[in-house]
Design brief:
The protein has 757 residues and is an alpha+beta fold. It has 3 domains: 226 residues, no CATH class; 215 residues, no CATH class; 146 residues, no CATH class. It is 25% helix and 11% strand. The strands form 8 sheets. Strands 16-15-14-17-21-19-23 form a 7-stranded mixed β-sheet, sandwiched between helices. A 4-stranded antiparallel β-sheet has the order 4-5-8-9, with no helix packed on it. It has a 3-stranded antiparallel β-sheet with strand order 1-2-3, with no helix packed on it. α8 runs parallel beside α9, α12 packs across α17 and α17 packs across α18. The longest helix is centred in the N-terminal third of the chain and has 23 residues. It is globular. The two termini are 52 Å apart.
Length: 757
């Protein structure tokens, strides 16, 4: 009996031991099981069988973009995602996650300055498709004889602005372009390198070619951010100091700019004054009521009221007009004349766009944050002669800070929360001011998450001199030229016809599946949609549309209505129909026709451009008590009012080898090929993990990982000084990346991580 119990005990212990071994080696066992699937031939489809519960592999391989692209693994049930088997890293040639093809051939470069003198040359940048540019893309490029030690090829000057003051430009533009000064005087062109990494040849979704952006260019951190304050650590320079340390910084070799002495508000104001003729019509007299005065401050500021005015002169934040009573005027005030709707002059005054960078109180500003804002101001506003104006829109979260009570509170809040150089472009807001403006909206809904557009609506009322407003996320970075990006997006949106526009808007554009956007993709959408299309504003009992009525029925329109019409809303992600999905915000509808009967659209990430007209309508709807969550607000209002909304297919890359068929299946799973309208939508609860490997989503790993590597910092075992000595310096194509929550230098061994439920 005793032996029988002992044998049972030994059996149980043995079983537990085997179970422990299995659990310990679970990952290795799984890898061995799925390893055969990693060796799929390149000609085989990476699509998966009809398992509607399968998502792509979730885990991040440190060898992504380095070795030949990984194939999608065999299907796993119930959305459980397993890591791909890491591929061996090549020993001589790498495609690193953020750069061009890198060679390990150390070769000294001729030095042109003391900064580039090296005692030992590291690996240098090499790119594919070097010199392959279309005629249109060659025009902005200019050869330089500048030598940089980290590249065999010299960088190119990149000037994407129009040929200002040329005969062709003057034929369609009013006034004269006058070059403006930057932080250090005359503004130099951005530098770029010809070519791109093989890993970034063609985006998985979206298109460079469609938007007209040259992806045969890449940008390196020192040439890209150096003019805005980036200081690179230089190793290997001769050092005669007693310490013997063989590392110097650029700031040791040249006098750094004192950025705290720069006044970006004043620079923008002076630039606008120089170019005022481009924005002021000259076709006859105009009454004062038709003028748009550029006002610095919110009309509700206490110092705009004579009864509450501070004894000292109010500080000027963002415009050339000195604050005074609204009934007062001076000859030197800058006024912009509204265009005459009854005339269509060949030469047009240029519209202006506000770029509103969203920030918040308590923000810890690092150097890269500042460099990013400097580049936005220089490239968008100063380089264009005032076509854009950049604002820092700061949310004061502390409700006890009474910024509207008197000027000193407002002024102190700016000083406490904003670097000195940006204080004159700063506009503050808080929840209380928005709640007072919209008394019909429940106070519990007025917060930065559910009502993000309300303060933008208030901003547009306080600064009405702009035709469009970019809602710009602070945790976004663009590696290319900002003016090039925004102008190309604007032109694309204006060129889009309204026919089947809402249907094109609600799906990701995948070139390998959809073909040419203006022909094949249109036909695919038309066949899938048929007569089930949005044509003008829908008929709703509680909405009076403000947009234009269709000139004819859709069958008689040859993709003509809407062409050359500025878009009222531009997004860089699809506007999907949340009905039928498991997206968490789909029922956030208050007022209108109720959450069951109100048509709606949504876009994840509110980074987008909105017209003054659309913001006005959004404001009026909120005054009525109608409201939806932030991700649906401008899209839904544009839909209900028949205004033009366009999804510009932003180039998006993934860190895994999706093929077109798989992308279409997992990101456009709707009944007619939409990204929404189905429980399988990638935006639904439990489905968003599909975006973990993308370069644009609110929880995605590649944006921060790529940016860290690009900045010379280690992330996922790639990047950093020692890594670059072997593999060379990263060089990224024009990429809009989000999110980058912390752009400060990371410690060795850092790995960017996100997850979804």
């Amino acid at each position: 009996m005793i032996f029988r119990h002992r044998s049972g005990l030994f059996f149980a212990i043995g079983a537990l031991l085997i179970l422990w071994v299995l659990l310990r080696d679970h990952e290795e066992i799984v890898n061995r099981v799925v390893e055969p699937f990693q060796r799929l031939d390149n000609n085989e489809s990476a699509d998966t069988p009809n398992d509607t519960h399968f998502d792509p592999p979730q885990a991040y391989s440190s060898s992504s973009f380095i070795s030949p692209p990984l194939k999608i693994e065999a299907p796993k049930p119930h959305d459980v995602l397993y890591p791909p088997v890491p591929s061996p890293t090549p020993t001589t040639t790498l495609i690193n996650p953020s750069s061009s093809l890198i060679s390990k051939q150390p070769e000294e470069s001729p030095a042109t300055t003391s900064v580039t003198t090296q005692t030992a040359a590291p690996a240098t940048i090499q790119t594919a498709n070097t010199g392959v540019h279309t005629d249109d893309h060659e025009k902005p490029l200019k050869e330089t004889h500048r030598s940089v030690w980290y590249s065999k090829a010299a960088p190119l000057e990149y000037n994407p602005y129009p040929e200002y003051n040329s005969e062709a430009w003057k034929a369609v533009n009013e006034g004269k372009y006058v070059a403006c000064e930057g932080a250090e005087g005359s503004i130099s062109n951005v530098l770029a390198f010809s070519g791109h990494s093989k890993a970034f040849a063609d985006p998985h979704m979206g298109s460079y070619q469609l938007l007209g952006i040259d992806n045969s260019l890449c940008f390196e951190r020192e040439t890209r951010l150096g003019p805005y304050g980036h200081v690179e650590a230089i190793t290997g320079l001769p050092d005669t100091s007693s310490s013997g340390e063989n590392t110097k910084r650029l700031e040791d070799l040249q006098i750094p700019l004192k950025w705290e002495r720069v006044n970006w508000g004043d620079l923008q104001d002076r630039c606008l004054k120089l170019n005022l003729g481009r924005y002021v019509a000259s076709n006859g007299p105009q009454s004062t009521s038709e003028k748009i005065q550029i006002q610095t401050h919110n009309s509700s500021f206490p110092w705009n009221n004579s009864h509450n005015r501070e004894p000292k002169k109010p500080r000027q934040f963002s415009s050339p007009v000195t604050n005074r009573e609204e009934t007062q005027a001076k000859d030197e005030d800058i006024t912009l004349r509204k265009p005459d709707r009854n005339t269509s002059p060949i030469r047009k005054t240029k519209s202006r766009t506000a770029v509103i960078i969203r920030a918040y109180s308590g923000k810890k500003w690092n150097e890269n944050d500042k460099q990013n804002i400097r580049s936005l101001i220089t490239e968008l506003s100063l380089g264009s002669g005032g076509e854009y104006q950049v604002f820092l829109f700061v949310h004061i979260k502390n409700r006890s800070n009474l910024i509207w009570e008197d000027y000193s509170n407002y002024y102190d809040a700016i000083q406490e929360n904003v670097p000195k150089e940006f204080q004159d472009i700063t506009v503050l807001w808080n929840d209380q001011s928005v709640q007072e403006l919209y008394p019909s909206i429940p106070k519990k809904l007025i917060n930065v998450h559910q009502s993000q557009w309300m303060p933008i609506q208030k901003f547009a009322r306080d600064f009405p001199q702009f035709d469009h407003y970019w809602n710009w996320e602070l945790d976004t970075r663009f590696t290319g030229h900002h003016y090039d990006l925004l102008e190309k997006i604007r032109r694309f949106a204006a060129a889009q016809p309204r026919k089947y526009l809402w249907e094109r808007n609600e799906r990701y554009y995948i070139p390998s599946i959809h073909g040419k956007y203006d022909t094949e993709f249109r036909d695919i959408v038309a066949k899938a949609s048929g007569k089930n299309t949005v044509w003008g504003a829908p008929i709703l009992a509680n909405v009076t549309p403000t947009g234009p009525s269709p000139p004819t029925n859709p069958e008689q329109d040859n993709y003509e209505w809407g062409v050359n019409e500025d878009a009222d809303y531009i997004s860089v992600a699809p506007m999907f129909n949340p009905n039928g999905t498991s997206w968490v915000g789909k029922n956030d509808v208050w007022g209108y026709s109720g959450r069951n009967d109100t048509p709606r659209r949504a876009t994840i990430i509110t980074h987008s451009r909105v017209s003054k007209e659309l913001l006005k309508v959004m404001h009026e709807e909120n005054l009525k008590g109608n409201h939806v969550s932030s991700e649906m607000t401008p899209q839904k209002v544009a839909l209900l009012h028949g205004l033009k909304a366009v999804y510009a297919p932003l180039p998006i890359f993934f860190d895994r080898a999706w093929n077109g068929t798989s992308l279409e299946r997992w990101f456009n799973p709707g009944p007619r090929g939409q990204s929404g309208s189905t429980a399988e939508s990638p935006f639904g609860w439990g489905k968003e993990k599909r975006f973990l490997g993308s370069t644009w989503y609110y929880r995605a790993i590649p944006p921060a990982r790529l940016y860290n590597n690009w900045m010379g910092w280690e992330d996922h075992g790639i990047g950093g000084p020692e890594w670059e000595k072997v593999h060379g310096r990263p060089c990224l194509p024009p990429l809009l990346l989000h999110p980058i929550k912390n752009s400060d230098k990371v410690n060795p061994g850092h790995e960017t991580k996100y997850d979804f439920p």
